[in-house]
What does this fold into?
Amino acid sequence: MDRLKSPARLMIVSDLDHTMVDHHDPENTSLYRFNTLWEAHYRHDSLLVFSTGRSPTLYKQLRKEKPMITPDITIMSVGTEITYGKSMVPDDGWVHVLNQKWDRDIIIQETTKFPELTRQAETEQRPHKVSFYVKKDKAKDVTNSLSKIFEERGLDVKIIYSGGIDLDILPKGAGKGQALAYLLKKFEANGKPPVNTLACGDSGNDADLFTVPGVYGVMVSNAQEELLQWHAENAKDNPKILHASERCASGIIQAIGHFNLGPNRSPRDIPDHENNVINPLPGHEIVNFNLLVEKWRLAELEKSDLFIAGLEKLTCPSGVFIHPSGTEHDIKEYVSVLRKVYGDKQGKPYRILVDNVLATQIGSDTWLLTFDKWEYSGKERQGCVVTSILKKDSDWFSWVHVHETWVEQSGENEWIL
It folds into this structure.
């Protein structure tokens, strides 16, 4: 919460499965588009929040399976757990809020009386969430019966049915919308409320996000029937909620443009001959360089000595590159290696993901940048933490220093480019 010194220009709060992450897109095209847009144009002054029904266990599993960038805040277990940053520090204040009129033992005791309910895996049973599967034709009757029982037992609970099968029992004060409202109140108390907030979802448990006052909302084109029905009954005349014509993360990008919340053209969508940004941000420079390397290795650029010469002009004559193995090289040697790897990934599912770009100005014309870089080749990935120093000369940056350190060691004799 303290990463930004001033209010966030934009806070995106997005569900993951079938919203940010498209499980029907094996190439993760829309996710890569969003990731590149965020790191190039938003990371430096905005906040990314993932709000998922997944438990911490399943959330971490998804991060291993899909090329996801790191959020500033993670809301998990249908709004019952809030954590901050890469290390996922829990919010103890939220735990205190949820403990009011909540008794997990009573809930387990009463739900065992319903044979229609099938208990979900133990990883999905959380301190403030008890989860089951129930068939669609039984859900309404079970929900109504449980609501009466819990009221009689003196509990304030919320029952959420989503995805046509998942039934979650939470404290009444919990949920994705309540967690978002809690965060906004916390930002307000710190004097840093986001300028704009965009909530993104596809299923019934995302409806709460769209009820938070002042928030823009987008239902992706593949939104489920239960969310569309909620919208028709509760918000069909609300101009701040968009039903996108694009799927998943592409729908989020569409909403950014629709509501004029900021740039919505991903660097991945810009032709190379147009990709000459005047006075770029340091983060954009990092993203654009790695995107060019990706295209070079995929042979999506014409093989040309002029391309290599252009990159060499962006390096400082005395610059140093330190390979993850620890060997030190002249930075121009680092660039010249690209000649040897042109097209080596052609026809392969190869992508470079730049994540968590943090820029600190350390001089009038000099920036220190840190970021994580992942190379994906199909299901395999290898990554490194990168520290770099960029110096601005007129409208362009030059690379002074690059130091890479392995995150996951695989193929240690390969150059990470």
Observations:
- The first helix runs from residue 29 to 41.
- The domain at 101-171 is CATH 3.90.1070.10 (Hypothetical Protein Ta0175; Chain: A, domain 2).
- The two ends are 32 Å apart (CA to CA).
